[in-house]
Design a protein that fits this description.
The protein has about 550 residues and is α+β, with helices and mostly antiparallel strands. Helix content is about 25%, strand content about 25%. The chain contains five helices and 31 strands. A hairpin with a 2-residue loop joins strand 6 and strand 7.
């Protein structure tokens, strides 16, 4: 038997395929084969085939409605699976491209071939839906996506990234260049096992020349930092955050006023620019404001400032009535001032001379409020942690008397920092809690105490105003007493004057009496002599 080489075998099979197609076309009377090169179907002696007009191939019987005037090439058949699809391969069969229903794929025996879409000229690669361009890749490699971009795994960009719409990431995002965000949209991480979150991470450490690394977010100007994150410190309006949260600018840009020697007649109390145009024109509009909060600001430690200001405009108030200073003085006298120290001496070991909220609540309840906080009613390091199932952990401690099932308890952990857990079981020397972090993997677990929603706070401003009213009453009393003292002093002076007159009159009377006595003495002596003479005469 005669054998063929591999190349000859491929050529023979190709020729047989073409002849079969030709026989099918001839059998249906669609075309007629002729020998001239300008025929509708022409096959030369080398096997090269020319086909003029449209090519209409029906691999299986057609159903439903099809175009009456087929396109330049119109092929139908059962091509839903790859083994029944249309393929074009190179002669070796290793590389190729295939077409199935709604899909283009790489065909061939090679498992490492690429699928290339190439524009050889100056044009762009355009992807359309609903006859509208949705993604355009131009000759410079710039990709323009006109709608939202959804990525389910990893997006890696080695150059700059510019987003005009919404970028939604299901797995991770890796960007090596700058990111330009030109729309008010967001990046979302979706369907995370332990809750959704977005993570920005700078993997370079200070040891790799990144001492001033972190993240820097700027506004449209691209110069002043709007948000700076570095070494776990967050800076707003500063490139050098020195605190966990450092707000470095106020609205009137105080530093500029100093560096430019701006000594204009202005003040910095209010929201916005503040300029005094005359002694009676005060524009106190918070020009020095760095942080504005629509709600409460809560801190576990002190507020430190050079001054404070509270809203007190009469236009904000109603039911105005002067307070009774007499009653206020009586209330102030009942408030007890106590010397004390905090239970948590680790955070605060200072001595205080202040009030106790519960005592103030009895005397002056308007000066107390209810807030939330953590009570140090355990304040003990766990001696043992035992992991149970379903994220439950048993913590061995001695102070469990103030705890009950359902309490939220704050733990100070290392390295996990502050963690809130729920108490599910309370025993004499242990509690069982439900925790989202592995407590048994922590080096230290310090049980701080119960997170309470009924912690009393004191409005020291209210007490200060009570003191003002009481002081005004004392001032009124003092003023009355001063008037009384003046009156008494006047009366005393008048009495002194009367006493002086009496003393003078008494002295004058004494002089007169002395004079009378001086004149009576000779008379008495004369009387005595006369009496003696009369007596002697009578005896004789």
């Amino acid at each position: 038997m005669k054998t063929f080489s591999k190349t000859q075998d491929i050529l023979l099979k190709n020729l047989l395929f073409k002849l079969t197609v030709l026989i099918l076309l001839l059998g249906n009377g669609i075309v007629k084969a002729q020998s001239a090169a300008d025929s509708s179907l022409y096959i030369d002696k080398s096997g090269n085939t020319w086909l003029k007009g449209r090519f209409n191939l029906m691999a299986t019987p057609r159903t439903k409605v099809h175009p009456t005037s087929p396109f330049a090439m119109y092929v139908t058949g059962d091509i839903t699976a790859r083994d029944k699809s249309i393929q074009f391969r190179e002669s070796s069969g290793d590389q190729g491209i295939g077409f199935t229903m709604n899909a283009i794929y790489t065909a061939g025996s090679s498992t490492s071939q690429d699928l290339n879409l190439e524009v050889t000229g100056e044009g762009s690669l355009i992807f359309k839906t609903m006859d509208k361009p949705q993604m355009i890749l131009d000759k410079n490699g710039k990709l323009n996506i006109s709608n939202d971009l959804y990525i389910e795994k990893v997006l890696t960009a080695n150059g700059d990234t510019k987003v005009n719409g919404e970028l939604q990431i299901y797995k991770s995002l890796k960007l090596a260049g700058k990111v330009h965000w030109d729309d008010y949209r967001s990046i979302n991480i979706i369907n995370q096992p332990n809750g959704s979150y977005m993570e920005f991470k700078n993997t370079m450490t200070s040891g790799t020349g990144n001492a001033n690394g972190g993240f820097r977010f700027t506004d449209f100007s691209g110069t002043d930092p709007t948000l700076r994150i570095r070494n776990n410190f967050v800076g707003i309006g500063t490139d050098d955050p020195q605190f966990p949260l450092h707000v470095g600018k106020s609205q009137n840009r105080d530093a500029d006023r100093y560096t430019k020697n701006d000594q204009s007649n202005s003040i910095s109390l209010g929201y916005g620019p503040a300029i005094i145009r005359s002694p009676d024109d005060f524009g106190r509009l918070f020009s020095s404001c760095s942080i504005f909060s629509s709600g409460d600001i809560v801190t576990k430690n002190a507020f430190i400032s050079t001054s404070s200001s509270l809203y007190s405009d009469v236009r904000l108030k109603k039911n105005l009535k002067l307070s009774s200073s007499v009653q206020d003085l009586e209330k102030l006298k009942q408030i007890e001032i106590v010397n004390y120290k905090m239970i948590d001496t680790i955070a605060d070991d200072k001595a205080y001379k202040k009030v106790i909220a519960q005592q103030v609540q009895k005397v002056y309840p308007i000066a107390t409020n209810v807030s939330f906080g953590t009570l140090p009613n355990v304040f003990e390091t766990a001696s043992a942690i035992t992991a149970q199932k379903d994220s439950l952990y048993t913590i061995t401690i001695t102070k469990t008397q103030n705890l009950k099932v359902g309490d939220q308890v704050e733990l100070k952990c290392n390295p996990a920092k502050d963690v809130n857990v729920e108490v599910v079981v309370v025993n004499k020397n242990s509690i069982t809690v439900k925790s989202a972090i592995p407590l048994n993997k922590q080096q230290v677990v310090f049980v701080y105490g119960t997170v309470a929603k009924d912690v009393l706070t004191v409005d020291y401003d209210a007490i200060a105003m009570l003191n003002v009213s009481a002081t005004q009453e004392l001032a009124r009393i003092i003023e009355q007493q001063q008037k009384m003292i003046l009156q008494l002093n006047k009366q005393n002076a008048e009495m002194k004057n009367e006493n002086t007159k009496l003393r003078d009159e008494q002295a004058a009377t004494k002089v007169t009496l002395d004079q009378i006595l001086a004149r009576l003495t000779p008379l008495e002596e004369s009387k005595a002599k006369t009496t003696l003479t009369i007596a002697n005469t009578a005896q004789k």
